Amino acid sequence: MYEQTEYSLAYALVFAFLILGMLVVCVPRPRKKGFVDPEQAAKEKRIKLGQKVQNKTKKKIEKAKKKRAKAHAKKIKQRQQ
Hints:
It is built from two helices and no strands. By secondary structure, it is mainly alpha-helical. The protein has helices spanning 5-26, 38-80. The radius of gyration is 34 Å and the shape is elongated. The model has no long low-confidence stretch (mean pLDDT 88). Helices cover 80% and strands 0% of the residues. The N and C termini lie far apart (115 Å).
């Protein structure tokens, strides 16, 4: 009798197409960052600018605190001598 390998090869081909179809449908494609609406971009820009200003203010305050602490320590040292 004849071996019917065509059926098993056909089933394998159909199975492969099903797997590839599932792969195409289920795996999301990466999106470009360029498709951001202008309102969202402006909002993110404002947030970044606000954070930048806050960081500068924090650094300025810390620098002033260190300067005052150093001057205070210097005064105490002079009084002790």
